[in-house]
Design goal:
Number of helices: 7
Largest sheet: 2 strands, parallel
Order of helices and strands: HHEHHHEHH
Amino acid sequence: SKPKIDRKKLGTIVFNDASKRRILSGITRGPIIQETVRQILKHWISGRDIVIVDSPLLFESGLSRWTGFNVVVWVSSEQQLQRLIMRDNAGEEDAKARISSQMPVDKKRELADFVIDNSGSLDQTKVHIVACLAKIRSEASRGILRKLTNRNFLLASTLASVAAIVYAFRMQS
């Protein structure tokens, strides 16, 4: 069996030492991006109309430039801190270290195409999610997508090539 990673201990180390965080990021970034792209392709090929990529480092990693729309689930900085402490049973200093290793949530809010306000109750957040999905579907159906950059065009061309290969393979089966 594979050895288990003590995520809490690892988090304490890397969120309090930027050089160790960079080392870990250098090790994990490639495989994470490869798996993300694999999953996107899998869902795209299977005909999903929306694929959601849940990434706490969407903007920091540059992954946001590959998505049609970027959605940020927003809470105030204070709520973010309190929820992290409760969720992870973390100390305040550990929670602050984790938060400070990411782009501030208000900056992410500025960069987002859509914002889901998560500062209220779960039911209120569900209402915001449904409204956000409706807006995304509406805008996508009207063709209001970002202009394609060379990279997006390359990705789109690659996706089209993969889709053609998969289609040809399915036809032969």
